[in-house]
Design a protein that fits this description.
Layout: E1 6-8, E2 13-18, E3 28-33, H1 34-39, H2 47-56, H3 58-71, E4 77-79
Parallel strand pairs: 3-4
Antiparallel strand pairs: 1-2, 2-3
Amino acid sequence: MASEAIFLPAAGSVQFAIYPDGYDGARIIARIDEEVLHDRFHAADGESELVSTYDRNADSIDALATARYRENPRVEIRLRSTDFQSGGF
């Protein structure tokens, strides 16, 4: 499936979709902060670079977002730098 990721300048994050129960299940919207993409994944400057960096690292980012969703499906999923410090991601 093609990436659904987009950069949201006002939020300073990349928004993306995860499908915890497969593509026939619910579509959950999540975000990852721009800071994480720069610091953890070494994204270059520019909106398209942030989205490309998400795309290249989608497996690990989506895995963490899915884990957060499973912990509490009622809470917004917004991945921050602290989420990547202790999870081995």
